[in-house]
Amino acid sequence: MFFENTECLRCGQALGFAPEQLAMVPFVEGGATRRCANQALAACNWLVDPATDGQRQLCRSCQLTRTRPDDGDLAALVAFADAESAKRRVVFQLLDLHLPVTSWADQPGGLGYDLLSSNGTRVVTGHLDGIVTIDLAESDDPHREQLRQEMGEPYRTMLGHLRHETGHYYWTALVEQAGRVDDFRGLFGDERTDYGAALARHYREGPPAGWPARYVSAYATMHPWEDWAETFAHYLHIRDTLQTAAAFGMRIDVPDNPLSSEPAVQVDHEPFETILADWLPLTYALNAVNRSMGRDALYPFILSPAVVKKLSRVHQTITNPIPHPTS
Fold it and tell me: Which of 17, 27, 96, 297 has the highest local Cβ count within 10 Å?
């Protein structure tokens, strides 16, 4: 079975994803759980548990959506379903990492998503006071590819946008509110730098020379907040991909390299170097497989020592409630 399934492809048993268990479980109509009311609208296969959700009709992921397209905007609703599919992966990972996921509807400043169509109106993808705004045009492959090439990005996906913008929310929750700001500034820079000026400079001049030695992406060079969000998103990419590889029992033996890896699922209390030891051999193999299919590298990134240090700090911040001194 797969994450998106609503039934077993072998026996036909109805299935649903139970966020409380973080698992696919059998679903029985009229049983203890009910299907999310967005099953048809957003192809949602998550279940609602009255024990935790009360009378709510939406699942834990769909509850986080504050605004969606009108029912009459059929094209936008198709893109909305694609965005919700990607968002469910993000929410699953947040729950799996034991990160606080408090809805905007339950607490001021809580996490929420505005999934908006830019067809006829301007939509700016971003984050403000807990609310992540996503332009649904990013689910259109030609549109997204055009922007990717225009902006010189090696990677651009709806899932990537959601992880990046959600990373801004967790800067507030895990850094600012947790008293880690000084630690953050020591590694990522001073976030008090004028954001508007930094944005204008980035689009006027581009990234500084030699940026790959210090940043995970060109966009990360723009401002310390963006460096955090890009690094946070990249960390989620790594963790999710490794978890999927482990679920399929993948093992990578790299020729002429003593590093052999069977990706671990639970590494919360291990140093980031343990994750990296699993990750690098997997990327070598996946890049080679992609090239054999006539495609570009699946993972077009180089993790410099400075970037690894930042990824390690994100790992520590997520998995350890005690702030770490700047090193």
Answer: 17
